[in-house]
Design goal:
316 residues; Endonuclease I-creI; globular
Length: 316
């Protein structure tokens, strides 16, 4: 049994807007340890107005006041260093529990951004209540949506040569993946580019559709329990994921076709590694049994994920 740690989103445990190998870890853990982590959501311009009935936590207010803003928009809890992790290794992040750290969330349409920037030129924020007991978000027009929380951002530090990387754009270190299937029971596999790996999480979502088309989901503060396991010398160089039922590969690129090609090639390779199927057969299997989804269209590098059922690959 590993040790259990608690890491609250607060001053001293949150960095803003960048992934960078020079950011010092705020927690050190051993492989197999669990971490109870809380995250924050929203910069000053994303906060609910006075009199709305939605309040900002003291931790959130402190971070906005005291932690310098980075080049990107996210507030991330971490980094977490894992003992003995070295470049060429792999971190496996098991999502064990997820819950809400505040009873409301927000959604934004930003001029010049999103999938239809010319169609919606006016800045808009909406704020919605989250009923954790019922598992429901209520939209302003009365529609109730079942919550399906996940961390939109989970990533390690980039290669030192890459310098400070904006948090908005997903890359080989993970980051702003926005994959809605990374809920409870999922595992995210991340490459290690620095000693300790330096894992950070944030960008909590109450619910999101594939595409995240208007630029945001229902953004909110989350609390979660993660188990982080080190796999030595696996040599992976790009994130992939699994749920209890599916294997998931990913691709990120400004060109959606290139993202799809990357994710599909990764799946063909993954199938071969799992059960030895040659590339031609794996390609055919993907065509008849895998699903290709748009992860998000709004993070500059767009996302594609390919999903295939484990029972087709005899995966336990």
């Amino acid at each position: 049994m590993g040790q259990h740690h608690i890491l609250r989103g607060d001053v001293g445990a949150v960095h803003r807007g960048v992934f960078d190998a020079t950011i010092k870890p705020v927690l050190r853990i051993a492989s197999g340890d669990t971490v109870e982590v809380t995250t924050l959501s929203g910069n000053d311009e994303n906060l609910p107005p006075a009199g709305s009935g939605f309040t900002v936590t003291a931790e959130h207010a402190r971070v906005l006041a005291q932690v310098p803003r980075g080049i990107g928009g996210h507030l991330m809890t971490g980094p977490i260093a894992v003992e003995s992790a070295e470049p060429g290794d792999e971190l496996i992040v098991d999502v064990l529990e997820l819950g809400f750290a505040q009873p409301w969330g927000w959604n934004m349409i930003r001029p010049g951004a999103g999938t239809l920037p010319a169609d919606f030129p006016i800045l808009r924020h909406i704020f919605v209540p989250i009923d954790a007991a019922r598992g429901i978000v209520t939209m302003p027009w009365g529609l109730e949506l079942k919550v399906s929380p996940f961390f939109g951002v989970m990533g390690v530090a980039p290669r030192p040569a890459d310098g400070a990387c904006i948090s908005n754009i997903p890359r080989d270190f993970g980051g702003n993946i926005d994959l809605k299937h990374l809920g409870v029971g999922a595992k995210l596999h991340l490459p290690v580019f620095n000693d300790g790996g330096l894992l950070s999480v944030g960008d909590g979502h109450a619910v999101q559709g594939d595409g995240e088309v208007c630029i945001t989901a229902i953004e909110t503060a989350l609390k979660g329990k993660l188990r982080v396991t080190l796999a030595k010398r696996t040599g992976i160089d790009f994130p992939w994921a699994e749920t209890p039922t599916h294997i998931i590969t990913m691709g990120f690129n400004e060109d959606l076709d290139r993202a799809a090609e990357f994710a599909l090639r990764a799946m063909i390779k993954k199938i071969g590694a799992i059960n030895g199927l040659p590339p031609e057969d794996a390609y055919s299997l993907c065509s008849v049994a895998a699903d290709v989804h748009v992860t998000q269209l709004v993070n500059v590098a767009k996302g594609i994920h390919v999903m295939i059922a484990k029972d087709l690959l005899k995966v336990g």
